[in-house]
Amino acid sequence: MISLAGRDILHAWGKFVFTGLGLGLLIGVTLTMAGVYRGMVDDAKVLLDNSGADLWVVQQGTLGPYAESSSLYDDTYRGIRAMPGVARAANVTYLTMQVRRGDGDVRAMVVGIVPGGPGEPGQPGYLVAGRQITRGHYEAVADVATGFGLGDTIRIRRNQYTVVGLTRRMVSSGGDPMVFIPLKDAQEAQFLKDNDAIVRSRARTAGNPALNRPGVPGLLDAVIASQSANPYVNAVLVQIEPGYTPEDVAEPIRRWKRLTVYTRVQMEAILIGKLIATSAKQIGMFLVILAIVSAAIVAFIIYTLTLGKIREIAVLKLIGTRNRTIAAMILQQAVGLGLIGFVVGKIAATFWAPFFPKYVLLEPGDALRGFVAVVAICVLASVLAIRAALKVDPAEAIGG
Fold first, then answer.
1. Cα-Cα end-to-end distance for the chain
2. How far apart (Å, rounded) are the C-alpha atoms in residues 260 and 268?
């Protein structure tokens, strides 16, 4: 019967192969959707890895700095650095925005870091070209995905920055490439108002009678100066000393500094369980729909092929072929169609995944689970055709 199933496939090979190709493209889309989700999870983990931090200190009661906004005074790190078990502490800012690139722009996460060598929290862990930021202003390190090269000029808000280094796979949780600039410049880009807003704010302040009291000289100037300052950051990244656990260091900071502190495990749970949870559910719904559509296609094709050879099945029954053998023949054809589809789908997904704008991670485990699912779907889809074949009357072979 294996030979009989193969001969029947060869007899209608065109329909069988083209159906397998169509099913394969559908399976390829399914594998790609799973890869998109895996890529989102990997982006979140890469973001945490690239920060070089063991602890994230953020504004109390927030899920910052990635899932929510967070604002801290930029001198907070000094008190944290003096806490037991803290090896390094550095300020950092994050701002997702459109960065000018030639006549167009690119969406990127602008990260404000303290200039210095590698190893400091927030610094790019490695470079593929150039050097780290060493000056306090107007230098940048960009991910290669932004399209910038060494020596290129980046315009962020009102300032221009020269690209002195290139890194790779430095992305936000949403997959946007990162651009690193000095912290002071990043504070200005994120928190400083535009010129017109500053002028209006100063005019409102100057018109406040409470700030123009004769007995308090210099009060108005002090208030105006404070409005031009940018004493805020989004988080403090902390590296702990050997011999301490993250919770050993985090708990005193929470208690004495009245700040929220997240460990690596907690921050990963926030990014995956909250930030990309809705996207994960949406992808899951697409996977269910694609599985149902795939099952329907296989069932329809196998059922059509079975109805097209009713007379041949009747002849087999007339010569004494058992129902189990006929059912096995139809099942083999369904599984064969699924195997062709899976091979085509795996090749297609591997081919087009690098062209997606965001990272698509195709894991072998997902491919194995997809293979098992395809075989199971094909087996279930063949049930309708098998039932139709088993109801065939052997007399139809004579009456025809």
1. 24
2. 15
